[in-house]
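Q: What does the predicted 3D structure of Ubiquitin carboxyl-terminal hydrolase family protein look like?
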Amino acid sequence: MEKKCPFLSTINRGVLDFDHEKLCSVTLRNEHVYCCLVCGTNFQGRGKGSIAYCHALEMSHHMFINLHTSRIYCLPDNYEVKEHSLDDIKQYLQPKFDKKLISILDKNCKTYDGSEYIPGYIGLYNFGKTDALNVVILLLSRIIPLRDFFLYFPIYDSENFQKISKVPVDKLMFSIIEIVCKIFSPYNFKGMASPFVLANTIERKSNSLFPVSTNTEKQSNKTSQDTQFVDPMALLSWIIHYIKKKLSKIKLGYQRCFYQDKMSKSKNIIASCIEGQVLNCTKINGIEPTSLNLSYESMKSVHGSTVNSFISLSLNIPLPSVLNPSLDSRIPQIAIFDLLQNKFLENSSAFQKIWLLPCYLIVHFKRFSMESFGLEKNPTIISFPIKNLDLLPYVHPDNLHANPNTKYDLIANIAHKGDTKSGVFTIQMYHSSRNEWYEIENLKVEQILPQALLLTTSYIQLYKQSDLH
């Protein structure tokens, strides 16, 4: 018969915070770390004479959880406590998902203090300059097959993990999956999450290309050398390529479990979701190769014609002086269709067309540029359809059969508020079940009208094909 613990009532869920690195508060070591469930402080060990053991004796705090195994113990007696009433704490520490939990993600959940939140639409802490990381992670979590891959991934189950992976779990992959699980967890005591561990891991893995704070000289890319600016597009591209590289170690058969019907079964889950192809072709004596009845294989070898993969469509925004020659006080505006037309505009010697559309389309508006006096932001407002963005005019006619659906619906929009030094990145995300839009600016979450999207200075957009669930 299992021993009934008399100290369950001393547990204080209000002080628990599992978002920081799992280090002992005394030794700063990460082996065998336990969190005191009474005061929320981390200590090492649980054996006789250990720091956690001494804390239990000195403070009469008896309940501890192992931060690596989520097993709960009573000290100093050192016996494991198995109570279903503690499952919410274990889920808060290590969120684990099954079909039942996935099915209730659309429902409101409650924090420890009774406040309501929607899983997947929670605020993220911003420390230093992590607003760019916050919006990037939230955007990636809108890609449903990738989200489900993360939520089901057995990062806390070494036995099942070994069945699907050729190598031990990567530290950065672990941190990405963990933060996505916390964002969608229905057992979030605070209704918010901190990307602290992920941000520090990215800083180390990228050799400080993406700093946590802004007091470093290294920057996110060549066009953002301002010490107050981390480019979300550079960060998004870096994370996507990193995930793609690590997915090569995950069995493709496991990844296919999360594909939708129309996705390529021969690619990893990232490529199947967001990777498209564009045809770059040189004209022959001013004539398009297809007009000369050349096959696709022949066309690829003519004058350097190539098909290249892409993970985002980057669109140039004209300078405000070009759109508004009078230089009056009005904010210049341009339609996304004009930007697409400029990108795929044919000239006398070459042309570019979309060859294969992705299931999820990332659009990048090139809004920031490095000028002689520093980083500059183009304030132009871009108009775009929220539903049914049709890319048919930009798809090569010879490959229309491979692109039966050319229409896209907007599901996420990253925008920038303010100037390049003191501004902040925000994200607007669509909730399909509720038919509502929400804006998240770090910890602030609020419902907005769809029309408000058209007033933002959009930087990155995520669309999904209209026939996807």
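A (community wiki): The structure tokens above were generated from the sequence. Residues 214-226 have pLDDT under 50 and may be disordered. The two ends are 49 Å apart (CA to CA).
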